[in-house]
Structure formats: structure tokens, C-alpha cells
Specification:
CATH architecture of the largest domain: Up-down Bundle
Structural class: mainly alpha
Strand content: under 5%
Low-confidence stretches: 234-244
Largest sheet: 3 strands, antiparallel
Radius of gyration: 19 Å
CATH superfamily of the largest domain: GntR ligand-binding domain-like
CATH class of the largest domain: Mainly Alpha
Number of domains: 2
Helix content: 55-70%
Strand order of the largest sheet: 1-3-2
CATH topology of the largest domain: Four Helix Bundle (Hemerythrin (Met), subunit A)
Distance between the termini: 46 Å
Length: about 240
């Protein structure tokens, strides 16, 4: 588990939450894995209390299960939670790009354009973990440009189930469109085309729907809830039947 340094004015609980969340999204802590407060506190260099508080908060977002007298477990991937998380993101992010596209004042696009250039470099060199972090930064910059950072703060926590799937997609899908999507979003904002900006964001956040089959093939069935496994088995049987 990679641990980043504590940020200025960051509490121990916030530090623990950020690092454990990152480990869950990047599969350093795998779905179904039991985790120990003691082990995490040693790795993070903090006491057990902020670790326990971080795990309880992560449980609220459906990515950790608190099991009485046994400890905590990283939740299996449940596509119902993923869909709800994605819905929340779509509502906020489509609203933000619409707002930016309708803005006729000057917008400083240099930070987000530099972000895209770096994305292209990481994608070309298959640095997918770095690419996911840049994707997060891209979306954060949109909220910053729109002066809606309180909304982003809420979104950043609520989207954890969806972020896990985004990470799986980056690692398993061969024909990634993430950088091209970002270019289309910025292009629509520059052209003050609110309708196209919303359409481009909708497509970008819907990618996991297209990638789901590839994700389920690339990762162990044990990472997913029984409902997801059953759906995949049914789809496989139907495909085999059609080929006969």
C-alpha cells in the first residue's frame, strides 16, 4: 500500500481516509480483502482512532463493510452502487460543463489543457494509475473553473464506487477513449456549445456501461457481488447458445 505524505492542515482522519480510499480505488486493497486497523495504522503512521473513523466513513459510501468482532472488509463491487454513484456524477458534472459553456467571460484554460497533454503522455506510456489521478484532476479543474468546489468535495466522496470501476476499465479495456473524451468536453466549452458539452460528458461517464463485459472478463469473479456474477454467467450462456 503506497502512502502519500500528509497535506498542510489535513487532519489524521482526513489523511487516513484519503490514503485508504486511494488504495481501494487502485486495488491495493482488493474487493473481499479483510483489513486490520492495527496494520493500517502502522502503515499510515497514525493511531487506530483516525483509521477507524476513516473506515466507518468509507462504509457509508459502500466500499467497506464493518463486521462486528471481526474487523473490516473491502466491499465487493456492486453495480447497483456503481450506477447510483455514476448517476450522481452525471447530474453534477453535466451541470458544470453546461455552466462553463454558457459562460461568455474569459476562462483560464491553460491548466486543463496542460492536464490533457500530460494524460496523452501517460496513456502512450501505459501509466494507467497516473492517468486515473490525472482524470480526477481534470474533473476537479472543471469545478474549480466554475467556482463550485464545495460540490466537487461532495462528489469526490460519493463517486468512490464508480471510481473503482473506472480504474478497472483503464487496466482492462484496450480501446480507451478517456483522453479523446476530455478533448471533446473542452472543445465544446471553448465553442460555447452547452448541448455538446453535456453530450460529451454524458458519453464520457457512460463508458463503464460499454466496458462492463471486458472488466468482468479481466478480473476475478470473486471481486464482484453474486448478482453481478450471475448476470455475467447468464450472458455467457446466452452467447454460447447463439453460437451453437
Amino acid at each position: 500500500m503506497n502512502v502519500s505524505t500528509i497535506r498542510i492542515n489535513e487532519t489524521a482522519r482526513e489523511f487516513a481516509f484519503r490514503n485508504i480510499k486511494h488504495a481501494i480505488v487502485h486495488l491495493e486493497l482488493k474487493p473481499g480483502q479483510m483489513v486490520s486497523e492495527n496494520v493500517l495504522s502502522i502503515k499510515l503512521g497514525v493511531s487506530r482512532t483516525p483509521v477507524r473513523e476513516a473506515l466507518i466513513e468509507l462504509a457509508r459510501y459502500g466500499v467497506v463493510e464493518i463486521i462486528r468482532q471481526r474487523g473490516s472488509r473491502i466491499s465487493l463491487i456492486d453495480y447497483k452502487r456503481v450506477e447510483e454513484s455514476q448517476f450522481f456524477r452525471k447530474v453534477l458534472e453535466e451541470g458544470v460543463v453546461k455552466l462553463l459553456a454558457e459562460e461568455h467571460g474569459s476562462i483560464d484554460l491553460e491548466p486543463i489543457q496542460k492536464n490533457i497533454q500530460l494524460q496523452e503522455y501517460y496513456f502512450t506510456n501505459k501509466r494507467y494509475n497516473d492517468l486515473l489521478d490525472l482524470d480526477d484532476s481534470f474533473h476537479e479543474l472543471l469545478f474549480l473553473m466554475a467556482d463550485k468546489m464545495q460540490c466537487f468535495s461532495t462528489l469526490h466522496s460519493m463517486s468512490i464506487p464508480f471510481d473503482r470501476v473506472r480504474n478497472l476499465s483503464l487496466s482492462s479495456v484496450k480501446n480507451l477513449k478517456i483522453v479523446e473524451d476530455h478533448k471533446e468536453i473542452v472543445k465544446a466549452i471553448v465553442n460555447h456549445d452547452a448541448q455538446q458539452a453535456v453530450k460529451a460528458m454524458n458519453l464520457h461517464l457512460s463508458r463503464y456501461n460499454y466496458d462492463k463485459t471486458e472488466i468482468l472478463k479481466a478480473y476475478p469473479a470473486s471481486y464482484f457481488t453474486q448478482e453481478v456474477q450471475a448476470h455475467q454467467n447468464l450472458a455467457t450462456h446466452q452467447k454460447i447458445s447463439m453460437l451453437r
